[in-house]
């Protein structure tokens, strides 16, 4: 997602995002001091990206509510592990499609990716309302929404560095908090509506919300600058960049464990903590509410302390909390765990792109490396939750919690390694 050149004025910039003919007329790349770092158009990009995150990673964060309903009602004859594949495929395709569509973003087709992604996400959710069998839900929610989310993800992340430099981490964190807000709104809306008007219309209402919010993304999205040249899909030299490869390992192992509570905390609360179902379904929104602050506050400090330093601290805190989960089996403890756990791991999602910038030799190679790092995160998301579901399927909630904690512990080791190899001086801003 290399930086792109300014077209001169707001009207022309908006036109470039519509017309493929105009993208070839872009002027040379602007110097860094020409980046606006504020203004109405710049902050509108944050609003549009917020809405995109709301309907991409936000659906992944909300999957725990769907998982509980599917396992108890719609797909009660399907194992938890198989049901979790729906959310995992969604998360994986989000990352994989983002990796593959990165060159299209750099080639000037960002607006088309936004439109196609919005259509697929909304269409997929409408199709979920018609589903009655496992394979239908997999096609609609796992594959269709996953592909659409991937088309939306890279433009929503890549547009922000073209408008911000000194406040890039904060702007990215504000945008990424959309997924956490969705994790509060969508599970509550889905559960309440499903109880009152049934599953089909509950999902249709959510689809209409997605349509309205993504319309804001389409209306506000403006490409400011175009890349001087198309980027590679893969950077072979990155394989020799030790800090970057350690960070990719961090992305994989962190995402193996990160979403396990999001998928299973509701079922854990009713099964182990004997929490009432009416209260248990609020655990996913509480996780997401904590994540809202976790994607904004650390990003504010990351502009001063360095994104890699901030991520290392937050992943370490998440791993400690995951081990504390081993001793939690009552309602007050679970609520406190959800608030704290939501806060710390959310930082990884919001600061991943900013950390890749720090670990890239130049902004010209950032798009390629971001795609590689996102793919590693997607593979972790694909693997983690089905494995956790298979462990629960054997009746071992202790095993699920250990699996989550161990994955985050390994992620902590790798991010610490990346930080030390990058700079051995503790006070360096990395």
Task: Detail the topology: elements first, then pairings.
Elements lengths: L9 H9 L21 H15 L2 H5 L1 H12 L5 H27 L3 H19 L5 H25 L9 H30 L1 H22 L21 H17 L1 H12 L5 H4 L2 H12 L2 H9 L1 H18 L6 H13 L2 H14 L6 H28 L3 H26 L8
Helix pairs in contact: 2-7, 2-8, 2-9, 4-5, 4-8, 4-11, 5-7, 5-18, 6-7, 6-9, 8-9, 8-13, 8-14, 8-17, 10-17, 10-18, 10-19, 13-16, 14-15, 15-17, 15-19, 17-18, 18-19
Walk me through this protein's architecture.
The chain is mostly helical and 430 residues long. It has one domain: Up-down Bundle (Growth Hormone, Chain: A), CATH 1.20.1250.20. 74% of the residues lie in helices and 0% in strands. The chain has 19 helices and no strands. Helix 5 packs parallel to helix 7. It is globular. The N terminus is likely disordered.
Brief overview, please?
With 430 residues, the chain is an all-alpha fold. The chain is built from 19 helices and no strands. Helices cover 74% and strands 0% of the residues.
